[in-house]
Amino acid sequence: MEGREADEELAALAKAIAHPARVQILRLLVRKTACICGDIVDELPLAQSTVSQHLKILKEAGLIRGEVDGPRVCYCIEPAALRRLKALVGGL
Length: 92
Description:
Keywords: DNA-binding, Transcription, Transcription regulation. This is Metalloregulator ArsR/SmtB family transcription factor. The chain is α+β, with helices and mostly antiparallel strands. The protein has helices at 4-16, 20-31, 39-43, 48-60, 79-90; strands at 64-69, 72-77. The chain is built from 5 helices and 2 strands. The protein has a two-stranded antiparallel ribbon. The chain starts with a helix and ends with a helix.
């Protein structure tokens, strides 16, 4: 788990979780066994637009995935990406 590629991957993932709200979102998604649609906004003391921006950052980093369900997007944790993040951090 060392080398330039691993360092860059860890830096990118760390940047994606560098905000407490994004950590809260990840914790919420890990606790749930199914995808979550509107519930994320209800769980955080943030505006819907702010939550959407945080979800976008997590999705771009590959830590979560979003699936369209009618007019909504349902979000789930991306287990392989979370395992990779844990492995990279564990390799420090």
